[in-house]
Amino acid sequence: MSAVLRHMNADHNTDSLVIVRANGAPSASRATMTGLDGERGIWRVVEPEGERELVIPWSRPISERPEIRREIVALHEDALASSAPLE
C-alpha cells in the first residue's frame, strides 16, 4: 500500500484533485491520497473551510493490487466525464 500512496502523491496529484472534486470536495485546492483498502480510497483534502478526510468507495471490492489501478483509473475517468476542467 505504501508504494501505491507514494506513486499517487508523487506522480498523480492533479489526478487526485480531479477525483476528489467530483466526489464530494468540489472546492478542494489540494488532495493527498492517505490510505486505501478493499472497499475504498482515502484522501486528505484542503478546502477553503480547512482540511478533512474524504472517503471514496471503489465501484466494487478489490483484493488484488492490479485492481487498485483499475479502480483509481475508473474514478478519474468518471470524474473527468462529470467535472469542469481544473483552473
Automatic annotation (TrEMBL):
For this protein, the record's InterPro entries field holds:
DUF2470, Haem_oxidase_HugZ-like_sf
Please give the name of this protein. DUF2470 domain-containing protein
Q: Where is the DUF2470 domain?
A: 3-75
